[in-house]
Structure formats: C-alpha cells, structure tokens
C-alpha cells in the first residue's frame, strides 16, 4: 500500500512510499515501464477508483516514566520485554494498522525539573522511545496535562526526540504555528488529517504555545480549535479530532464534552477520539459521526481497568468512503494489558455508558436508532 505524509504547511509535501507486501514495508522505488507502441499509448484508458481498505488504530493513555509503575514492572518483572506487558495480539494489531496513534502522557528528556506544586509528573529517558516504536506508533498526541511536566527544555527535547525517531506528533509545538498544524496523511489517495487539543487541567500548568514560545493547543475556549478543524477539513477528506478531556476515573460525561464534541463535528470533524479520564467513557453518534469520549488507560499504571484498542476501518473510494469502528477488548491490571478473547465485559460496559451506540459480539460499533 502506498502511504504518503503531507505536511500541514502550505504546499509542502513529503511522500514516503512503502511496499504492499503486508505491514509497513521498506521504502520501494518504481522501475520504468516498457515502451509501448504509439497506437497503444494513444488509446484512451479508463481506471476505476482505487478501493480503500485502511485501518487507523488508537490507544488511550501510555506512560513510559522510568520510575512509574509500568516501567518498573517492565524492568524488574518482565525482563525488559514489552510483549510481557502488552499482549502480543494487541501489539500485532497496532503494528499492522496503516496508522497507529498513541496518547503520549510524559516528557521525553534527560533535562528539566519537576513543575513545583504538581502532584504527578512524568518523564521518560530518550531511549524509551524504542518502546513506542515497538508498539507501532506512527504518531502521538501531545496536547495533554503531562507533556510539560519538566518544563520548557524537557518539552522541547520531547518534540526533537520524537522527530529524530521518526514519530510524528500533533497538538504541541515549538510555537503556535506548529502546535495548531494538522497532521495530514495521504493513504491510497485518501487524505486523513489528525488534530489534537486539551482541556484537562483544573490548575493550569501546561502553557499554550505562543507566537514564539513552546506549548500545546488547548480548547478551554473551543473557538480556536474549531478553526483548526475547519482548516484541516479544507486539506483532507477525513478529519480525526483527538481531545484530552473528561473527569478522571469517572464514566460520567461532562456537559462540555457533549457540547463541544458536537461543535467540533459541525466544524468538520468526522470522528472524535478522547483521552485523559483513565477509564473508558461512552460512545455517541452525532450526525452519523462517532464520538469515542475516552479510551481510558491502555498501559498506564497498576490499576484494574477494562480498556480497548480502537480500530477505525475506512473502505470504499476516495469519493465515497465509509468509516466503521471496532472495539478490540483488553484488560489492564497489575501493569499488564491483556487482550480479551471474550470481549463481552468491555462491550457491555461501553454500551451501558454510551449515549446512542451499541456493540456487536464481534466488537463492531453501531448507532442505535
């Protein structure tokens, strides 16, 4: 499958072509086609629209802080093997997806000091990026309440270290222009944009990016984020809107989540994926667009929680595409996230807290009419 990355800048484009031999293959080149006769070359050709069969994967919260529960377990109990902490079935699905998006809830740096007065602060050593690569992360969302935990230098290091590792990021930047810029990918001719913003702090520790200062894109006032979404829609066929919001460890939705989710769809979002609550929250359909209010913890701490990997499947053609969603059921407990062969516990929980969505026995999500 051809996979192209289109930067959010005006006209700038970087195309990366990967082979269609299953998974994310190595870069390939095209050889010249044999010469054709003049008659053959003059004959008109009709090509059918390219069929789409894409999978976009999403996880909830991930934490690679070296002193935190999951990394301590990885080092001291799992022999450094990520597959002993995250089920190989889940890792395989994440790596096989056309794009895998992970919520990165920590700075990546050897520098900085904990922000004074903040109860929980997270920072990972730069070499821990190898675990993001092993998870299959193509991009990470950074508009959250822990990315600036160790200050400006560690924040800038995080952006630079991700770039060096070949992992894209969205929702944060060295300045406002970068923080608000959508990530736009060309997947078999379908342009898919990712945008990301946060409204997760009661006490504001994480700065908004300024014209010449680093930070994140926030949406406490949703006006700017709606503009970002609208601009992304002008560049892309499908807009994925990732929002960091909600009450921690609560299945109950805040009214502001419902109100702004609908406003973001009206602005041009085709699907909304939420993080931050550390537990699953429900699903709603609005004007046919799905809202996954919160994916909860994926591999974040020691708590016993039901969770999932979200897969969005895009089929059809560029001109007439269809989006379907599947919940891949999982269970985080004791610093291990396992795939559930019987997903009924996850499906039943999600359906019980959803607004107007149901889940079939195979994990397929549907709108209840």
Structural account:
This protein has a single domain, classed as Purple Acid Phosphatase, chain A, domain 2 (4-Layer Sandwich). The strands form five sheets. Strands 2, 3, 6, 7, 16, 17, 18 and 19 form an eight-stranded mixed β-sheet that branches. It is an alpha/beta fold. Mean pLDDT is 90; it is low at 1-5 and 7-43. Strand 14 and strand 15 (289-295) form a beta hairpin. The radius of gyration is 21 Å and the shape is globular. The protein has nine helices and 21 strands.
What would the average pLDDT be, to the nearest integer?
90
CATH hierarchy class name: Alpha Beta
Topology order in helix (H) and strand (E) letters:
EHEHHEEEHEHEEHEEEHEHEEEEEEEHEE
Helix content: 10-25%
* Rg over C-alpha atoms, rounded to the nearest angstrom: 21 Å
What is the domain tally? 1
What is the 3D form? globular
Terminal CA distance? 36 Å
Based on DSSP secondary structure assignment, what is the total number of beta strands? 21
Largest sheet: 8 strands, mixed
Q: Any idea of the CATH topology?
A: Purple Acid Phosphatase, chain A, domain 2
User: Do you know the CATH architecture?
Assistant: 4-Layer Sandwich
What is the CATH homology-level superfamily? Metallo-dependent phosphatases
